[in-house]
């Protein structure tokens, strides 16, 4: 079985593949939590491992050491590259492009082999443009829903509400009549406005001849705007498999 990991700054997303099919997985908030979660599934027999990490080198090395010690397997770590799998990195300093974005771009182009717009809705929202020849044209980064609401909660004393209230506020799109409704729906409109701007730019580049990929936890909040878009929650893992092939 192959253990795959997407290691962000706050959480680690993981899954185990058996013959290319995900048989288990989850999200944890620590290295110890990851090991415990995997060991809690007795049927898992890890033989290979690959990961992408946006953490510091020391943090990544510590996680790799834990995996090697616990499961006795080698670990492949995705690395930045100027070009790979038919995609040319568009950053002036290619190593500065976040590895999660790079893998999502590679994954999208692997699936489409055409011009594509990659939208990732996580803590931050990112947009990346890839031409039909595989040239990454660059992209944009803006705060996602979690960052926007946290900034308002942090810097505005009277804005206080829980996550359940936030979820309920997003069930409608009418002007808010409570603070939580006004904040959540306002943040959502900002995110949706960002999406519309990216679509306009993509059409300037390619007319209608491009594919849109959606990924990330809040992608569902914009799917209705993009009925033809491909929702691929594991897009980073698609790119990881391309850049770190295993037997």
Automatic annotation (TrEMBL):
Listed binding positions for ATP are: 6-13, 123
User: Does this entry carry the keyword Cytoplasm?
Assistant: yes
User: Per the record, what are the reactions this protein catalyses?
Assistant: (R)-pantothenate + ATP = (R)-4'-phosphopantothenate + ADP + H(+)
InterPro entries in the record: ATPase_NBD, Type_III_PanK
* Subcellular location field: Cytoplasm
Query: Organism's domain of life?
Result: Bacteria
Q: What is a GO molecular function of this protein?
A: ATP binding
Q: Which Pfam families match?
A: Pan_kinase (PF03309)
Mainly resides where? cytoplasm
Q: What class of enzyme is it?
A: transferase
- Give the multimer and partner information: Homodimer.
Entry similarity comment: Belongs to the type III pantothenate kinase family.
Q: What is this protein called?
A: Type III pantothenate kinase
Q: Which organism is it from?
A: Pseudomonas deceptionensis
